[in-house]
Amino acid sequence: MVRKRTVKDIRAMKHSDAGISMLTAYDASMARLLDESGVDILLVGDSLGMVVLGYDSTVPVTMDEMLHHSRAVSRGTKQALVVGDMPFGSYQVGVREAVVNGVRFLKEAGCDAVKLEGGKEMGEVVRALTRAGVPVMGHLGLTPQTAGQLGGFKVQGRDLASARQLVADAGALEEAGVFALVLECVPGELARLVTGSVAVPTIGIGAGAACDGQVLVTNDLLGLFDKFTPAFVKQYLNLAPQIREAVAAFRNEVAAGVFPAAEHTFGSKVDFGSILQNDEDEGSNG
User: Fold this and answer.
1) What is the 3 state secondary structure string of 28-41?
2) Per-residue model confidence as pLDDT tens digits over 28-67
3) Integer angstrom CA distances of residue 186 from 167, 174, 267
């Protein structure tokens, strides 16, 4: 019998030899494929704004859009822990609104937990969410929702002051009750230091191999999103050119009348020609 992973399972992986695998999913079909492949966590990331919805950043993504895609992913998942990304504006306004929106991810979308960006300033929000029964994954380093304040999509924590701040933020979020931390675009040695300083798992993206797990945007991993490829991404497939080639072949075969062929067409033992003959006879009788 398939057993659903829990927050407790993910926390326990901090002390196991197996690294935690996390990938993004935005629909039921992809979620099913990733889930059947044994991925530990499926993140319904607000990255869907850029790779699915065509926005220039994650900032415009709404709660309704996140809940819509989270419901689809939940329906396609049997084993992995499903984490919904709280979009910009859904938790920064106030603690009450953050809790209401966090509860919606679990109650309406079937998620197992939520993820939010920010350091110790988010401590009160994390505590309120966990008190309400909403498990929280933190996110430090490069935080895409506020990338403009950070000087763009750049590596964070390269100087001592910002590195100390990141370590302090990690400790504050752990104390507030997060069950795991995403570390994005920070130097490998800093990620190693943070990983050793907290009792919760760290999941890196552009943060080196010392984290307790790794996450990638699935569209990057598969080569589906080819507007740009971050330096930390390993492309396991390059599907975009293959998809273009397949679609062009379909278009050309339709234009040439080659598709559909006989093997793609349903047959019948009925003589449909008699339908027209009967119609003509009835017309002449009238």
Assistant:
1) HHHHHHHHHCCCCE
2) 999 999 999 999 999 999 999 999 999 999 999 999 999 9
3) 11, 18, 61
pTM above 0.85, yes or no: yes
Residue 7's Cβ-count burial label (10 Å; 0-12, 13-18, 19+) is middle
Quote the distance between the C-alpha of residue 184 and its chain's center.
14
62-120, pLDDT tens digit by residue?
999 999 999 999 999 999 999 999 999 999 999 999 999 999 999 999 999 999 999 99
Number of neighbours of residue 61 by Cβ within 10 angstroms: 26
Cα distance between residue 265 and residue 263, in whole Å: 6
pLDDT digits (tens, 9 = 90+) for 169-216: 999 999 999 999 999 999 999 999 999 999 999 999 999 999 999 999
- Residue-level length of the chain: 286
Q: How far apart are CA 202 and CA 13, in angstroms?
A: 10
Amino acid at residue number 116:
L
Which structure tokens are listed for 247?
Answer: 């679609």
Q: Which of 97, 175, 184, 282 is catalytic?
A: 184
Q: Is 117 a catalytic residue?
A: no
Q: Residue 144: which H helix or E strand, with range?
A: none
Residue 138, phi then psi, degrees to nearest 5: -90, 170
Given a contact cutoff of 8 angstroms between Cβ atoms, the answer to whether 117 and 146 are in contact is yes
Residue whose entry in the numeric block shows the structure tokens 């699935």: 218
Q: Are the beta carbons of 30 and 72 closer than 8 angstroms?
A: no
Q: Are 50 and 56 in contact (CB under 8 A)?
A: yes
Q: Report the C-alpha gap between 10 and 30 in whole angstroms.
A: 22
In order of 107, 140, 224, 235, 279, the CA distances from 71 in angstroms are: 10, 26, 22, 27, 50
